[in-house]
Write a structure and sequence with these properties.
It contains eleven helices and eight strands. With about 300 residues, it is of the alpha/beta class. It has one domain: 3-Layer(aba) Sandwich (Arginase, Chain A), CATH 3.40.800. Strands 2-1-3-8-7-4-5-6 form an eight-stranded parallel beta sheet, sandwiched between helices. Strand 7 (about 220-230), helix 10 and strand 8 form a beta-alpha-beta unit. The longest helix has 20 residues, at about 65-85.
C-alpha cells in the first residue's frame, strides 16, 4: 500500500437533499483523522479544502438540482484527485455529499487508463446511486454518480475525466445496499451492476460478500473505496442526511474494512455524506475514522497480507 496519503476536503452539500454535509471534512479533522493515520506510520499531507460554488438551494431544472454547480465541484475534485495520483500519492477525498464520487472516480479511471491498471470500485452505501433524471423523484444528483460514471446522464457530468463512460459497471461492487428506487432497480439490473445488498449479507455473511467483491483483485489492480457513511446502521452512525435502518453492524463494517486492508491494494478513498448537523457529539465522524484506521491496516493481531 502507498504510505503517502493526501487529504482533500470537498466541503459542499451541492448534490444532497439536506444541508450539512459541507461540514463533513472539518468533522473528520476534529475526529483526528490526520493523527490516527500518522499513528499507522503513514505520511499524511492535508491539502486543505477545495472551493466551489455555494449551494443555491433551488428546485430541480429538467430533472437535476444544481447541475452546473455540481459539474464545477466535480471538475475540481477530478483535477485534485488526479494530481495526487500523478504524484504517486494515495488521495482521500473528505466529503461532502456523494455526488463528488463522480469527480473522484473519473480521475481514478483516467489514472488507470494512463498506467494500464485494472480498476475495481467498492461502493459502500445504503443506496445504489444509479438514478437518472427520468427516474429520480428529487433531482438530487447525489443519487446519480454511479449512473453518470457508467454513461447514464448529462454530458456535463459524464464527460468529466475525458472518456464516456468513465467506467464499466462490471468494475463496481456495491455493498450494504438497502434502499433503491423502483425504476432504479431495473436500470441496475439491465446495466449488470454487481450488488451485495443487506439481504445477501444477512443470508451469507459479510465475509462471503467481501470475498466475492474482492475476487480477482491482483497486483495490477487499483482498488478504490467509496465509503458513504450511511452504509453503516444509523444506530452507530446517526450523522448522515439519509439514514436507512438495517445496515451493517460495527463488527460487520470492521470486517469489511479489514478484508480490504488485507489485499494491500487500496489506492484511493472517498469518505462521503458525513453530516454533523444530524450527529451526536461527533460520534459518527469518530466511528468513520475508526473504520478508516482499519482500512489502512489496524488489526488486533499481526496478519499476513495476500
Amino acid at each position: 500500500m502507498n504510505l503517502n496519503i493526501s487529504l482533500i476536503g470537498a466541503p459542499t452539500d451541492i448534490g444532497a437533499g439536506s444541508r450539512g454535509a459541507s461540514m463533513g471534512p472539518e468533522a473528520l479533522r476534529v475526529a483526528n483523522i490526520v493523527t490516527v493515520l500518522e499513528g499507522l506510520g503513514l505520511n499524511v499531507q492535508d491539502r486543505g479544502n477545495l472551493t466551489g460554488p455555494h449551494n443555491p438551494w433551488l428546485p430541480p431544472v429538467d430533472g437535476y438540482r444544481h447541475l452546473q454547480e455540481v459539474a464545477q465541484w466535480n471538475q475540481s475534485v477530478h483535477d485534485a484527485v488526479y494530481a495526487e495520483l500523478a504524484q504517486k500519492r494515495l488521495p482521500i477525498l473528505l466529503g461532502g455529499d456523494h455526488c463528488l464520487g463522480l469527480g473522484s472516480i473519473s480521475a481514478v479511471a483516467r489514472h488507470c487508463r494512463a498506467t494500464g491498471q485494472k480498476l475495481r470500485v467498492l461502493w459502500l452505501d445504503a443506496h445504489a446511486d444509479f438514478n437518472t433524471a427520468a427516474l429520480t423523484p428529487s433531482g438530487n444528483i447525489h443519487g446519480m454518480p454511479v449512473a453518470c460514471l457508467c454513461g447514464y446522464g448529462p454530458d456535463v457530468l459524464t464527460h468529466i475525466g475525458g472518456q464516456v463512460p468513465a467506467i464499466e459497471a462490471k468494475w463496481v461492487r456495491q455493498i450494504g445496499i438497502r434502499s433503491v428506487d423502483e425504476g432504479e432497480k431495473r436500470l441496475v439490473h439491465s446495466a449488470g451492476l454487481e450488488v451485495f445488498d443487506m439481504r445477501y449479507i444477512d443470508e451469507m455473511g459479510m465475509r462471503a460478500a467481501m470475498e466475492l467483491a474482492l475476487a480477482l483483485v491482483d497486483a495490477n489492480t487499483h482498488l478504490h473505496v467509496s465509503f458513504d457513511v450511511d452504509f453503516l446502521d444509523p444506530d452507530i452512525a446517526p450523522g448522515v442526511g439519509t439514514t436507512v435502518r438495517g445496515g451493517p453492524t460495527y463488527r460487520e463494517a470492521q470486517l469489511c474494512m479489514e478484508m480490504i486492508a488485507d489485499t494491500g491494494r487500496l489506492a484511493s478513498l472517498d469518505v462521503m455524506e458525513l453530516n454533523p448537523a444530524f450527529d451526536v457529539r461527533n460520534k459518527t465522524a469518530e466511528v468513520a475514522v475508526d473504520l478508516i484506521e482499519s482500512l489502512f491496516g489496524k488489526s488486533t493481531l499481526m496478519r499476513k497480507t495476500r
